[in-house]
């Protein structure tokens, strides 16, 4: 964490001086006023204001570092790139042996996403939602789930019975629900407790 002490005729001037030296904006720092300064009379007895300016912690960067640490402990040297849309953060992982981070049907990646969600929201006043992706796995998985939804709905109609799908996390169940909600011949609902909660497709 970088910090700098700066002075100026006023507190505002001192802060501005520090911001220019650090080349950042006011919303990225915490300011501690060491001395408010004194105007003095006719230029006599004036005292410069002194402030200590500290760069605030960047929760997104800290979380990216946390992901690097976790993946290194899994013997995977992953590159982490981040993107933001509103309060939703996507961490995209790439590199060699990335399949280790995905795991069977994305289970390892889902567990990592859960950990990252906790780490990012632990000490923050702002709430972030999180996606952790690896080499475009999420899009491929979405395509798979959409195909699975259509296939299992057809099966439910064909045998005229309820069909239960394998347990999956809430965001994957949501994909199945949204794919099938436009069909008039089936309905869907979730059943069971996490982590065994699953979708049932009913004719």
What does this structure look like?
- The strands form 3 sheets. A 3-stranded antiparallel sheet has the order 1-3-2, with helices on one face. The chain has a 3-stranded mixed sheet with strand order 4-5-6.
- It folds into 3 domains: 3-55, no CATH class; 59-135, GMP Synthetase, Chain A, domain 3 (2-Layer Sandwich), CATH 3.30.300.20; 142-202, 2-Layer Sandwich (Ribosomal Protein S8, Chain: A, domain 1).
- It is an alpha+beta fold and 203 residues long.
- It has helices at residues 11-22, 59-73, 99-102, 107-121, 137-159, 170-180, and strands at 3-8, 29-35, 49-55, 79-85, 88-94, 129-134, 163-164, 187-191, 198-202.
- Helix content is 39%, strand content 26%.
- The radius of gyration is 26 Å and the shape is elongated.
Write down the overall geometry.
elongated
Question: Total helix count?
Answer: 6
How many E strands?
9
- For the termini, the CA-CA separation is 59 Å
Arithmetic mean of pLDDT: 87
Strand order in space, largest sheet? 1-3-2
CATH class of the largest domain: Alpha Beta
Q: Roughly how many Å is the radius of gyration?
A: 26 Å
Q: What proportion of the residues is helical, as a percent range?
A: 25-40%
Category by helix and strand content = alpha+beta
Count of domains = 3
Give me the CATH fold name of the largest domain.
GMP Synthetase, Chain A, domain 3
Q: What low-confidence regions span 5 or more consecutive residues with pLDDT below 50?
A: none
Known CATH architecture of the largest domain: 2-Layer Sandwich
Helix-strand sequence:
EHEEHEEHHEHEHEE
Biggest sheet overview: 3 strands, antiparallel
**DSSP strand content:** 25-35%
Can you say what the CATH homologous superfamily of the largest domain is?
Answer: K homology (KH) domain
